[in-house]
Amino acid sequence: MATFWVVFAKCVGVVVVDGDSNVETIMQKTTELGCNPGPDHVVQMQQVRTDEIPERYKNRLLTKDEVDTLNAGKQFH
Question: I need a labelling partner for 29 at 20 to 30 A (CA). Which of 20, 57, 62, 64 fits?
């Protein structure tokens, strides 16, 4: 299983999900979580190291502050 960082357009936000490398599977998971506004809104999807993202940040829409924290590479507790 891999971890993916999915970015949506129009200020919707970022979702981090675990899944296989199949794009359709990842998009279905974000839809099931209620975080996917539609296929035309995905801007970027990239695989990240599983250990880079703490579990508390996965499977939900992240706030701007949470995204900034993850982008800054701060330590998590």
Answer: 64
